[in-house]
Each structure stands twice: as C-alpha cells, then as structure tokens.
Amino acid sequence: GNNTNWAVEIKGGGFSANDLQGLMVFAARYREFRPLIIGEEAFRPAAERSGIDFLRWQDYLLDGLPE
After folding, report:
1. pLDDT digits over 20-45, tens only?
2. Could you tell me if 27 and 6 are in contact, meaning their C-beta atoms sit under 8 angstroms apart?
3. DSSP for 18-58?
4. Residue 60, SS3 per DSSP
C-alpha cells in the first residue's frame, strides 16, 4: 500500500516557482504531507528546481501515486 501522504497540485501548463507558493506553504505547515506536482514532462525541471517531486500525468493515470 501507499504510506506516503501527498499534497498534490495538478498543472495543465507551465508554471513558475511563484505559482507553487500555496503548495509550499501547505507542505511547510503540514509536514506529514509531501508535495507533488502532476503535469507535463516539459515542466519537470521547474518542479525539481523548487524541490518538489514531479509525476507525469500519463504515469499517474497508468500507475497512480508513487509509493
């Protein structure tokens, strides 16, 4: 089973670090949740620069959330 609590934000296009502020504030306040962005592969670097886990939306549909 999946024992990780995720705070998920789904992005349909590009985003900046500024766009992730809500997710970051939530994750800082609720440390038991790990932030995760689901979106297009092209935007993985923006998530990683912010220190947030990233999952391609296609992988989410096929496999669900990561362990």
Report:
1. 999 999 999 999 999 999 999 999 99
2. no
3. GGGHHHHHHHHH-TTEEEEEEE-GGGHHHHHHTT-EEEEHH
4. helix
CA distances from 42 to 13, 28, 35, 48, 65 (A): 9, 26, 19, 12, 19
Pairing verdict, β 5-10 and 53-56: unpaired
Q: Which amino acid is at 67?
A: E
At 32, the amino acid letter reads E
pTM confidence score:
0.88
Nearest to 44 by CA among 30, 31, 56: 56
38 near 59, Cβ under 8 Å? no
6 DSSP β-pair partners: 34
CB-neighbour burial class of residue 2 (10 A; exposed 0-12, middle 13-18, buried 19+): exposed
